[in-house]
Amino acid sequence: RIVEQLKVEGILVLNVIPGSAAEAAGFRSTTRLRDGRISLGDVIQKIDDQPVRTSDELYLRMQRYRPGDTVSITYWRDGETKIKKVMLDSNAKKKP
Predict the structure, then answer these.
(1) pLDDT per residue over 17-45, tens digit each?
(2) CA-CA distance, 76 to 63, in Å (whole number)?
């Protein structure tokens, strides 16, 4: 079987924490399907039009904001680039 290869730059979302702002915004995490295949999560490409290609860049960009700020996140999902506005939340519930 031939798999199409795509080059998408950004940060792959591996896990979305339940109760987090990311979950509330509807971001998808990477999951393993019942048949063993992997379904890739969203790929975050930009924060307020500033590219993010590494986790370090993502953390540096996010340090500029405070809880309650709204940021524009450009991401790739299912072959399409999308943009979503997300309000940052410091009171995200984290499960152990």
Answers:
(1) 998 888 988 999 999 999 998 989 999 99
(2) 22
Q: Return the sign of the alpha-carbon dihedral for residues 95, 62, 85, 39.
A: negative
CA-based R_g, the chain, Å: 14
Reading the block at residue 40, the tokens are 């890739």
Q: For 31, phi and psi rounded to 5 degrees?
A: -135, 155
Task: Give phi and psi for 64, each to the nearest 5.
Answer: -75, -10
The tokens describing 81, both together, are 């680039």
SS3 96: coil
Which residues contact residue 94 at a Cβ distance below 8 angstroms, ignoring those fewer than 6 apart? 17, 19, 20
How do strand 11-12 and strand 80-87 relate by DSSP bridges? unpaired
User: What global pTM score does this model have?
Assistant: 0.81
Cα 68 to chain centroid, rounded: 18
